[in-house]
Amino acid sequence: MQAQSPSQDAHTAQLMEQILYEVKRVVVGQDRFLERVMVAILAQGHLLVEGVPGLAKTLTVKTLANTIQGNFKRIQFTPDLVPADLVGTRIYNQKTGDFSTSLGPVFTNLLLADEINRAPAKVQSALLEVMQERQVTIAGETHKVPEPFLVMATQNPIETEGTYPLPEAQVDRFMMKVLVDYPSDEEEFVIVQRVIGPAVAVSSVATTEQLAELQRECRRVYVDPSLIQYAVRLVSATRTPEKHGLKELERFITFGASPRATINLTEGARALAMLRGRTYALPEDMTDLVPDVLRHRLVLSYEALSEGLDADTVVAKIMAKVPAPARPLEHEKLVA
After folding, report:
1. What distance in Å separates the CA atoms of residue 106 and residue 98, rounded to the nearest whole number?
2. Rounded CA gap, 249 and 270, in Å?
3. How far apart are CA 74 and CA 46, in angstroms?
4. Is 336 exposed, middle or buried (0-12, 13-18, 19+ CB in 10 A)?
5. Alpha-carbon torsion 97, 99, 100, 103, what sign?
6. pLDDT of residue 34
7. Could you tell me which residue ranges the ATPase AAA-3 domain spans (predicted)?
């Protein structure tokens, strides 16, 4: 691991603090959700967000885009969308007789895919392909999306009529699935005060180049091998629970998590450690993210659903059985 100077560490922490401060001037509460958005950006992952309308999902991402001088676009997914509406298409010019390429709204830094489960499978696949490849091919020409690139897709948990559920293989491409809940009474009071008061102007505190540098710094955060082994054991327990003393869970899980979950747990722990001002990950950085990384990757059996079990309950049982490692001694050497 490449060591950073104290001045570099201080500058990184200050920049992260400024970004969060600016967003919180507009967005009330939702600290956990905002933290997950920042983790996804630093770890170069994507978010699947589930929450009822009106919980500041759009506002959070739009405000964040303004603070980093990035582009923000929002697509409202509907059943009549076609892939070209997302990625772009070739347009024929009658005057010149030439074709020109018109790039779609996926060419942005922060993309909000609102109600992704309202669009048909072809459109979902087109978006998920861009998320994975970070490029689009139109008529044989490859176009790369800008860096940094974050997709935040939302799902409404209430309405299921006229929706197309995301296939498990495609959901796996999201780094985390975050559940956004209602604000507390105190937070809601402040929300109303801010909405009826004068508009808050958000300052740009970072450039997309600085954010790209933060992403590179995140890759240098130290993760102890014992933490990676912990991630492997957790994910393994979702596939073969009986090997980890969880035989009672075997009948509740049809399919466990893929190796992407192990990678995302490790990358997420790095990013969360960096957000918390450290150049090394601790066990709590990983344990805090386990439910968000695993909940959408477990395919539960009908037996689990009939007994009222959800993915979070199963993940909690696994976490209770698979112990997190003690704080590795390596950290003392790194900070000494």
Report:
1. 24
2. 30
3. 15
4. exposed
5. positive
6. 86
7. 46-176
Report how far Cα 200 is from the mean position of its chain's Cα atoms. Answer: 26
pLDDT at position 2 over 50: no
Structure tokens, 211: 């954010």
| Cis amide linkage into residue 259, ω under 30° from 0 | no
The SS3 call for residue 119 is coil
Domains defined for the chain, CATH in brackets: 6-215 (3.40.50.300), 221-335 (1.10.8.80)
Angle between helices 57-67 and 31-42 (to 10 degrees): 50
Copy the structure tokens of residue 40.
Answer: 């996804």
- Asked if residue 82 lies in contact with residue 125, where contact means CB atoms within 8 angstroms, the answer is no
- Three-point CA angle 52, 62, 89, nearest 5°: 95
The tens digit of pLDDT for each residue in 76-135 reads 888 888 888 888 887 877 777 787 777 888 999 888 888 888 888 888 888 888 888 888
DSSP 210-244: HHHHHHHHHTTSB--HHHHHHHHHHHHHHH-GGGG
Q: Name the one residue in this structure whose structure tokens are 């912990």.
A: 230
pLDDT in tens, 210-263: 888 889 999 999 999 999 999 999 999 999 988 888 888 888 988 889 999 999
* DSSP states along 280-299: B--HHHHHTTHHHHHTTT-E
Instruction: Count Cβ atoms within 10 A of the Cβ of residue 297 and give its class: 0-12 exposed, 13-18 middle, 19 or more buried.
Output: buried
pTM for the whole structure: 0.85
d(CA 202, CA 281): 31
- CA distance linking residue 167 with residue 144, whole number of Å: 25
